[in-house]
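User: Hi! Is it possible to get a structure for several chains at once, not just one? Here's what I have:
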Amino acid sequence: MPVAKVNGVETEFEPGMTVLQVAEKAGHEIPRFCYHERLSIAGNCRMCLVEVKPGPPKPQASCALPAAEGQEIFTDTPMVKKAREGVMEFLLINHPLDCPICDQGGECDLQDQAMAYGRDGSRYAENKRAVEEKNMGPTVKTFMTRCIQCTRCVRFITEVAGVPDIGMISRGESAEITTYLEKNIDSELSGNVNDLCPVGALTHRPWQYHYRPWELRKTESIDVMDALGSNVRVDARGAEVMRVLPRVHEGINEEWLSDISRYAVDGLQRQRLDRPYVRENGKLRAASWEEALGVVAAKLTAAKPEKIGVIAGDLQDAESMKAALDLFRALGSANTDCRQDGSALGHGPREGWLFNSGLQGIENADAVLIVGANPRTEAPLLNARLRKAWLTGEMEVGVIGEQVNLTFTHSWLGAGSKTLAKLPKAAMEFLTKAERPAIIVGSGALTGETGPAVLNALGALAKKVGVVADGWNGFNVLHSAASRVGGLDMGFVPGEGGLSAVEMAKKGALDVLFLLGADEIDASASKAFKVYLGSHGDRGAHGADVILPGAAYTEKPGLYVNTEGRVQMAERAVFPKGQAKEDWAILRALSALVGQTLPYDTIDALRSKLMADHPTFGRIDYRPPAASFDVASLGKKGDLGDTAFQSAVRDPYLNNPIARASVTMAELSALRTAPVAMAAE
Amino acid sequence: MSVRRLAKEQPASFAFSKATKAKADWWIAKYPAERKASAVIPILWLVQKQEGWVSEPAIRAIGELLAMPYIRVLEVATFYTMFMLEPVGSAALIQVCGTTPCMLRGANELMAVCKSRIGPKQTLSADGRFTWEEVECLGACANAPMAMINDYYFEDLTPENMAQIIDDFAAGKTPKPGSRVGRTSSEPEGGALTLTDPKLYDGSAAKPIRKLPNSEPVTA
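Assistant: Yes, the chains can be modeled jointly so their relative placement is included. Here is the combined structure:
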């Protein structure tokens, strides 16, 4: 490896690194505004100036300068100090002194770097320039006078999000960042530009003036809005979750976060179930825990075991599902299901329901067939990854399902099962030719009566074109529910002779139906006694006879398994609302009342049991390596019929009870369904 | 330079004329198909030739023609001051150079004439026939003060002949461009003082070039 000297110390670096990267590698911080590791290099802020020998006797922008063998880099000479002071002084000529009322205050790159590298006073008495605010949609609040034209937002939206909506118009002193005629940013990743903005020009509109960063208590957690399990940090003040920001995880979300994961948190404050309710004469009335649990226990013990059942929801943690599963098995019921959508998954080897290539691994695929999924709505960050791989020119994508704009070019092969039954020749060719072909099947394609047949057909196709081979497993299931893989891993499916979720919801199937946070299934036809355990007064609670208030994902420690089979642990950020309790504790209390006391009194004991029963839960943040399995054995051979595949997520902004309670999500959803006509139209 | 904005009043639509479209296609053909966005500047210019200015519907039409996001076309159109974002006078668009040499030779007086005859700068005159603006150096400093009117340079101007030119355009005439003191391009007043030998121009002084300086010897 070539060697350069940084401040007199020899440092090895990889060919192609820039001077800035080499200096960072040697442990010297280089201030910067426009440079970002995951975006293209712009080199327009000039904050990263360093002295480099050999070279012209002037400071050089280190972010855009390739490092070379034998180069001498200086980051702390008087020339560099003076250059940084000069750049900072220029940047501050037009920057308003409104830090006390700026949302970025306290976590502002400009503030920090002005302190660290700037002069201590101003030499300017002239008026500062003022720039009008711009509309960029419900997620982005603009304050363009503060903008320093780093163009990070322009590059992110164009390169990563693939929605070239933001641009810099005009020139020189009058340059402005804007969208075309102030239209809304049409991206499900728009919130990231607020994170990227090094100053307070773009800030989070939903959280505007809600907090100061130093007031917040920060807790590491896992996102549950989609099945990717993005790593997040939950920032809370007192009992209220104020915001959710991404944490870096190269394998999952890199450092981005989708808008729903980020801005649905205001839903945690609304529509909350904060006390138990019991239905009396058709009306719900508040009750005590003893009373509510007593009613449920009486109903459960009175009913025949085959007439009770439990359906687990999409946002559940593994612990509560384990407790529910143990309880209902102890009661002798086989009616347990975590697949509200009636998916065909859950039988056979574990690989049969995982995203086997891994979210990072999918970038290595050279041909991807997407079946019945719209990654842009179901998992925006997966879509960004697919786009990233597509940009290298080494990935071809074909789609069977809805015709949608995925932000990258793909060939649309057909609408549904008919196409799958007889793949066009071109589609077969692009899969067989590929060295590492992959299939991404969305949960939308595997529901309904034809689900098992579709799964079987896909398995056969996967076997035929070599999707599963030595060291490469490209059979990928893209789930849309955060709890699904965890549920399937622990066998939260109907036992011997048990009913599936769809069957349980039918009229007369059950006497007691226990909904564990299950809001996406329509159980109104069922005349069973319904118990709802969950956090929000949503669809599930509306028809319930007893409501047991549970905790939302930010209010309980929990294990979540993402779509690639990675077990991740979330911490509790705030306590449950009112009298609400953690879900597993409610089930544990109920188990004592029905005389089937669960053998765990603490969450640690519960986790030990879970890990003992299902060893896959035993390794946190571990993704199993590509394993070969008999992919053709999946599902059941049958008639594929003629159904058009639909994405499992109809409206990404209203996909779960938390989002449905969120004002921001309602706003985004309204814009999505009925885009506001542009002024000129 | 002030902040450049799209005009408040915009036409309902824009369509490329046949001639503009033909020229646009010629430009697009110069670039590889996937890089046809490179033709954006010439096509903006063609659109301006067709309409006199660049309207918002025209920006969208160009975006669609070149498969570019609209914001990218808007970026280019707002960056270059030669693209007029407001309607301009139907008779004449007068761009008076105000940079130092012209300013020293009397550009301010020219602008005073424009102001009194037409109105405030960068504003369409009341009758819609004239617009004038101050521009940066147009590169004819030897002939200062000067102005570019429509596509031509009018040089060595005085307030009087500036007024005359405006009158001529107003009367529907087309004044002759060039120097107002009768010199050819930037020759001295009264004719050239150097390079006057007629032999320079009849070909008799021409010699074949055997070897260009600092180049490989010519072999053929």
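The mean pLDDT of chain B is 92. The domain at 92-179 of chain B is CATH 3.40.30.10 (Glutaredoxin).

User: Great, thank you!
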